[in-house]
Structure formats: structure tokens, C-alpha cells
Write a structure and sequence with these properties.
There is one protein chain. This protein has about 750 residues and is of the alpha+beta class. The chain folds into three domains: about 280 residues, Distorted Sandwich (Beta-galactosidase, Chain A, domain 5); about 400 residues, Glycosyltransferase (Alpha/alpha barrel); about 50 residues. It contains 18 helices and 33 strands. The chain starts with a strand and ends with a strand. The model has no long low-confidence stretch (mean pLDDT about 95). Bound molecules: beta-D-glucopyranose. Beta-D-glucopyranose binds next to loops.
């Protein structure tokens, strides 16, 4: 079994959408869903990160741009359409090591012509605007005329599968005959962002060019060039399609002129040179991100799929974009950015690709204006980050959705899921703790910490009778319960956010007093505010059980109907129990980790016993109806000794999309589950955590069948390689490192190799 490949051996057009998601190729700048050129079934998707538009849709959404993949083969007058042909063989394969998607098939047309097609496609990691495909075409039982059509389709819409929400976000501006080559420019409706796709074909066999004739055409929103060739039985021809994708969102010059120049350069470099450079970059990325699991092939492939897709979804070159909940892999959640990024994906980037982590945090800094506006328009102060954010940081959560019966349902998350503010603060502190990036914390980080704390100051309510601060009417991570008071996750992290703001403002005051004063005057803060913050920090209400061991998820939670989960499906996941006449929100059932989530984020704040009691209590009541949940329970489970469930939850997390276990992979990647998968391996099985003194700890436990686990992380500018086998742990570090292994302290000096028996 090749442990770097995801393969599909059978064609079924019903699965096209799912595989478009799984086979998406992206480089952080853009993503192209893994659509098949030779089928019209599915949902093609071409997205450039940061290009959003609202126009007729309910809220601003990522724009599905013109499709540049268009490629048809005609044998005389018959189009090779795999939904119409008989398929003699079919295979698709994503090579994750190289970042290349392969497709091959033998198709027999209605007139009995048999043709073999082998293609490969890549979206360059070397030059982000380049992508290309290569087709090797062989007639198997005929000689004759073959026409090859290269086209760009501007008739694309968003939500193509949903007639009530289908929206076209752009107008086709220009078609170009680049002779050879074609181009099509579109312009978005609201912000007039232009995007250009430019493609051209080169066709060769052993005697050189195979094209005899070319015809350029414009068909409304579609531009095409067709080449006539003559093909001979058993002889292969190779056609290379070069593509350039650019937008004036990031390029302030004439798009077509720049595009044609770039295409020329690309062709001059050649397909082979570009793909080689692309592969070298992927090799380098794998060197940073890979987790090697020996002895468990299913786990190995699964974890790599998640690492590959995460690394594909971001790059360090743009600080005005972040990763959407569905990556660059589909239109689910409208391309919006959630807490998924900071809490679930960011740790992966912090520890493997810190430059990318910084760019992701810079997106929050660069959208502070929107966050301040959100606070202002909802009656608060400081910065209120949007539960769902797009290009400007304004709140873009839809207010209404539709249930299965077609009834309108009010969506409250955008109004009440305030914890996103502390989640972002959490991401900043985690990043700084692991990287020591002073420049970032001084210039951007502290500002976010202070302005989010200022928001909490305006949001909390003082309860005079109880002499405590409360936060009423919120939604915590568990979205089954709306309008709840004193959700512990929200309260605890608001308190923590304020504590960190106080700590870093004191730190900045000493570190860079001018900067400190400038910030205070910019944000309108003074000692009076800081005194209030101290009070909030000390008196924030955290509901608990009477013995103090079980944290009450929110005030009144223990009084709700305690419905038992007693049935599990074939994957050992909970089946809905009978609510016995209650509404879901009237039960103690949870959608996803909530109290458990808090204990994973702040592991040092809770004793082992408290973690164990809470894990046991809440695990039995969690339905895992969010893909964010299983990985988190695996981490907390391992921390409290539940090894049996940990492996189950880990596998569930890493196979979220590969097995489509949430049933909606069609609409994009579960990027948070991918981040959770990394966390489950590293924070869970390796037991990596940073203790109160800021020292790195590992406490590995490996499932029986795992022969070994190895990986690299960045820790304060050193690269640390850790390899765990059944009988020993080996550690290398490029810089001096203090590390606790099973609570024993080790000092590793520069480039020395540490071996510890297990
Ligand atoms: C989850 C949220 C998550 C969102 C986007 C929801 O179903 O409950 O926690 O942020 O999906 O992934």
C-alpha cells in the first residue's frame, strides 16, 4: 500500500462532489476542486482566497470564479463524456507527497471507439498563479480525427446545487483570443474585483506538434479554442495545458498584460521544470509537517491526508486572508472563517510552519476595523470578532437558515457565540509562547489582547446580589443550547483573556513604554479600566457542581433532562436517543466538546481529577454532531487515561472526510477536524503540552499496533525532532532545549541526541 496516496478505482457519478473535495488542489492562494474534465456531473469550484461578494446572496460569500479546467476530447463528432461512455478502466489518485492529482481511464464511445486518457494536474506551490494539466491520449482501436477543446467557463454560479440560493457573483468582462491561448476576465458585483484565467494548450507526439488547425470561439460566457489533430491507433499524444490565474485583489496592474507575460514565462520554463520545483517545495513542506506512524497504515494515510489539506489551505504570502471552515475546497459555510482557525488549525501551523501561523493571526489584526465595528453596532466597546468572518471582519453569519421541512430557522450564533474573541486571544498567546516572536506581540498581538479585553469589560454584567460578574444569553461551543447564562467556556476564557491582556500590558509598559502609551491612547484605556479588569478577573462566575468537581456547562444545565445515549452506530458513534418529549435544548445532550474543550485549551488550569470527572460526565452526553468534537475527546481522554476511546476518536477525526462521516464532504473540507487530527496525534498520543513554567512536556502513549511515531516541531526557533518507539524516545534539537519526558527533566544542548528508555 502506498502510504502517500488517496486512490479511487471505480467511477460513480454520484460521488463526484465528494471526490471533488477530497481531490482539491490548493496552494493557499487559490483552490481548484478536483473536478473531472470529462463529466458534467458535480460542482466545479475555483476559488481565490479573499475574493468575496454578496450581491444577491443572504450574506457575503467566497466567489466561485470562472472555471479554467475546461477540456474536451471529440473523436470525430463524438464527445468523450464518461457519463455516456462505457468505462473499461478508471482510476484517480492523489499523490500527497508531490501534490499531484492523477486520473486515467479507458472509455468506449457509443460508436465503439476506444480511447485511453491519462492526466495529471497540479496547482503550483512554486509560483502561486500557475497551474497546469498534462494529458496523454491514445486511440486504442481507431485512426482518425480528434478535436481537442480548451475552454474557460464563465457561466459558473455559487450554490449551483441549491436553486433557492444559486447566486452569480460576477459579470464576464472580457474574452480574449491570445492566439494561441484563451483568456476570460470576470468582475465581482459589489467590489469590482477582477479575476483573469488564461490557458493554452501545447500538443506533441514523437514528431513534434500535433495540431493541424485552430478555431477560436466565444459562446456567451464561455470562451474556447479547438484544435484539430489526427491520431493513430496505439500512438500516444501529449497535450499540456498551461494555466495562469490572477486577480487585481493582489495585483495592481493590467491583468491581461500581466497574465500573458506570466503565461509566456511559464511556457518558457516548461511544464517539467515547474512541476519539479513544485514537488521540491512539497518535499520541504512534508519535512516540516509529516507525522510518521509505523505499524498502522490506515492511520498513516489518514493523518497525511489531513496534513496535506491543511498545508494546502494556507500560505505565508498574504496577511489579509485566513482559512475558511471548509478550506479552499468548497462553498460550505460560504468560505467564512470561524474559531476553527485559531483553536483547531493554528496549533498545527504554530508548531510546524510558524510563518503561516503568523500570517493567519495577521488576518485578525488586519480585520480589527471590522471587529471594532461589530462591537459598536451591537452596543459594546473594543473589538468584537465576528463569529463568521469574510474579507473585512464584519459579522457575516446568516441570520436565517432552513430546516428539513422548509421552515425558516433563526440562526443565533452570530449574535451569541461571543467566545470567538477569547479564542483569537488564545491563538495569539499560544503563538507567542511557542515562537517568542516579540515583533508580532509588540506590534500587533498586545493590541488585539487589549481590545478584546475591552470588549469583555463592556459585555460582562455585574450581579450586585452575588457580587460577581456574569455573561448572560450566549451560545458556547455546544450549539444545541442557545441563550444560556454563564456558559463556563465563555466566562472562563473571557476571564483568561482579561488576565492575559493585563499581563501583556504590564509587560509592554516595561518593554516599550512609548508603544504602551500610544496603544492606551489609541484604544482609550487607562488605569481605571485596568482596575475594572482586575475586578472582573477576580469575580467572574464559574458554575460548578456542589462538590466542585464537575463544572456545570452553564447555569441550569444540571437541571435539564438527562437523556442517556445508549445506542451506537457501526463506527461506535452515538445514535440519537429518544428525547422523551423534550426539545434538544431541554436535554443535557451536547453537540460537541464544550467543558472538555476548555480543559484541552487550558490544561494547566485544572487538576487531573477534575479533568477525569468532567471527561467522564460530558463524554457520555456528547453526540459529536460537529466534526470538531472527536479529536478533542481523544486528547482529553488520553490525558485522563481513557485509551480505548482515544484511538476510536482519533480515527474518526482523521477519516472525517475520507469516509465522509459527517455526510457533507461534498461541500468542502472539514478543516478544523484536520487541525484536530494533528492535535490528537501530538497533544493526545505524544502528550505534548507546555507547563506553567513554559517548559515543553511530552508524555507519550502509543496504541498497541503503533510501532513508532515520529515528527518535527518548531519550539522557540529550534527544530525539535521526536521519535517514539516501543522501547525508547529519541530527541534532537537544533538549539538548546529543556524538555520534560514523563515528568523527568532533560536538558538537550545544541545538536545533541537524547535517547530515553521507555
Ligand atoms: C460547529 C462550530 C464550527 C462550525 C464551522 C459548527 O457546526 O458547531 O463549532 O465553528 O461548525 O466548522
Amino acid at each position: 500500500m502506498n502510504l502517500w496516496k488517496i486512490s479511487l478505482d471505480k467511477y460513480n457519478s454520484y460521488d463526484n462532489r465528494k471526490y471533488e473535495t477530497l481531490f482539491t488542489l490548493a496552494n493557499g492562494y487559490r483552490g481548484i476542486r478536483g473536478a473531472l474534465e470529462f463529466s458534467s456531473k458535480g460542482n466545479k469550484g475555483n476559488y481565490i482566497a479573499g475574493i468575496f461578494d454578496k450581491s444577491q446572496s443572504q450574506v457575503t460569500e467566497i466567489v466561485n470564479l470562472q472555471d479554467p479546467l475546461g477540456f474536451n476530447i471529440y473523436i470525430e463528432d463524438e464527445k468523450v463524456d464518461i457519463d455516456e461512455c462505457v468505462l473499461d478502466s478508471f482510476k484517480r489518485e492523489l499523490d500527497m507527497y508531490k501534490g499531484i492529482l492523477y486520473t486515467s481511464f479507458i472509455a468506449i464511445t457509443k460508436k465503439g471507439k476506444s480511447i485511453e486518457v491519462k492526466c495529471e494536474r497540479f496547482v503550483s506551490r512554486n509560483k502561486i498563479n500557475r497551474w497546469a494539466a498534462k494529458y496523454e491520449i491514445t486511440p486504442l482501436n481507431f485512426n482518425g480525427k480528434v478535436f481537442l477543446e480548451n475552454y474557460i467557463d464563465g457561466s459558473v454560479t455559487n450554490s449551483a446545487w441549491d436553486v433557492m440560493n444559486k447566486t452569480k457573483h460576477f459579470k464576464v468582462k472580457n474574452n480574449y483570443d491570445s492566439n494561441p491561448g484563451i483568456a476570460l476576465t470576470v468582475e465581482t458585483n459589489d467590489n469590482n474585483i477582477k479575476a483573469l484565467e488564461l490557458t493554452t494548450l501545447m500538443g506533441e507526439n514523437e514528431i513534434g506538434n500535433i495540431f493541424k488547425n485552430r478555431r477560436y470561439s466565444e459562446f456567451g460566457e464561455l470562451v474556447s479554442e479547438v484544435y484539430e489533430t489526427f491520431m493513430t491507433e496505439g500512438k500516444s499524444s501529449t497535450i499540456v495545458k498551461y494555466g495562469i490565474s490572477i486577480s487585481d485583489r493582489d495585483l495592481k496592474s493590467d491583468l491581461y498584460a500581466s497574465g500573458t507575460r506570466q503565461l509566456k514565462d511559464f511556457m518558457k520554463d516548461g511544464y517539467d521544470v515547474e512541476i519539479k520545483k513544485h514537488i521540491i517545495i512539497w518535499e520541504k513542506i512534508w519535512n516540516e509537517i509529516d507525522i510518521n506512524i509505523d505499524g498502522d497504515e490506515k492511520a498513516q494515510i489518514g493523518i497525511r491526508f489531513n496534513l496535506f489539506q491543511l498545508a494546502s489551505s494556507a500560505y505565508e504570502g498574504d496577511t489579509t486572508i485566513s482559512i475558511a471552515a471548509k478550506g479552499l475546497h468548497g462553498e460550505g459555510y460560504k468560505g467564512h472563517v470561524f474559531w476553527d482557525t485559531e483553536v483547531f488549525m493554528l496549533p498545527f501551523f504554530i508548531y510546524t510552519r510558524p510563518d503561516v501561523a503568523k500570517a493567519l493571526l495577521m488576518y485578525r489584526y488586519n480585520t480589527l476595523k471590522g471587529a471594532r465595528k461589530n462591537a459598536e453596532t451591537t452596543g459594546y466597546k473594543g473589538a468584537r470578532f465576528a463569529w463568521e468572518a469574510a474579507d473585512e471582519g464584519l459579522e457575516v453569519t446568516p441570520k436565517w437558515g432552513v430546516d428539513y421541512d422548509g421552515n425558516a430557522v433563526r440562526i443565533w450564533t452570530g449574535d451569541e457565540e461571543y467566545h470567538i474573541n477569547s479564542d483569537i486571544a488564545f491563538g495569539i498567546v499560544e503563538y507567542y509562547r511557542a515562537t517568542n516572536d516579540k515583533e508580532f506581540i509588540v506590534n500587533q498581538g498586545v493590541e488585539i489582547l487589549l481590545d478584546t479585553a475591552k470588549f469583555w469589560q463592556s459585555r460582562v454584567e455585574y450581579n450586585k446580589v452575588e457580587d460577581r460578574y456574569e455573561i448572560s444569553s450566549v451560545i458556547g461551543p455546544d450549539e444545541f443550547h442557545e441563550h444560556v447564562d454563564n456558559n463556563v467556556f465563555t466566562n472562563y476564557l473571557a476571564k483568561w483573556n482579561i488576565e492575559k491582556a493585563l499581563f501583556f500590558k504590564n509587560w509592554l509598559k516595561i518593554e516599550d513604554n512609548v508603544k504602551y502609551k500610544v496603544l492606551c491612547s489609541k484604544l482609550g484605556l487607562n488605569e481605571e479600566d485596568f482596575n475594572v479588569w482586575e475586578m472582573i478577573y477576580k469575580k467572574m462566575y464559574i458554575p460548578k457542581s456542589e462538590d466542585g468537581m464537575i463544572i456545570e456547562q452553564f447555569e441550569g444545565y444540571f437541571d435539564l433532562a438527562d437523556i442517556e445515549i445508549s445506542k451506537y452506530d457501526e463506527n461506535e458513534m452515538p445514535i440519537w436517543p429518544d428525547f422523551k418529549g423534550n426539545k434538544l435544548g431541554e436535554t443535557q445532550l451536547l453537540k460537541q466538546a464544550d467543558v472538555a474543550q476548555l480543559m484541552i485549551m487550558l490544561p494547566e488550569e485544572f487538576s487531573e481529577d477534575v479533568k477525569k470527572f468532567n471527561y467522564e460526565y460530558y463524554e457520555q452526553r456528547t453526540m459529536h454532531k460537529s466534526s470538531l468534537s472527536p479529536s478533542m475527546y481523544s486528547i482529553l481522554g488520553l490525558a485522563v487515561g481513557d485509551r480505548q476511546n482515544a484511538y476510536k476518536y482519533f480515527m474518526k477525526a482523521i477519516y472525517t472526510d475520507l469516509e465522509d462521516n459527517q455526510g457533507n464532504t461534498d461541500f468542502g473540507l472539514h478543516a478544523a477536524a484536520a487541525g484536530g487530527s494533528w492535535q490528537s496525534a501530538i497533544f493526545g498520543f505524544v502528550g505534548l503540552r507546555v507547563n506553567k513554567e513554559g517548559i515543553l512536556n511530552i508524555n507519550p502513549w502509543l496504541p498497541e499496533q503503533w510501532e513508532g511515531l515520529s515528527f518535527n516541531i518548531n519550539w522557540k526557533n529550534s527544530r525539535v525532532s521526536i521519535s517514539i518507539s516501543k522501547d525508547k524516545i529519541e530527541v534532537n534539537s537544533t538549539g538548546d532545549l529543556s524538555l520534560n519526558i514523563y515528568d523527568k527533566k532533560y536538558l538537550i544542548s545544541n545538536k545533541k541526541h537524547l535517547v530515553v528508555e521507555r
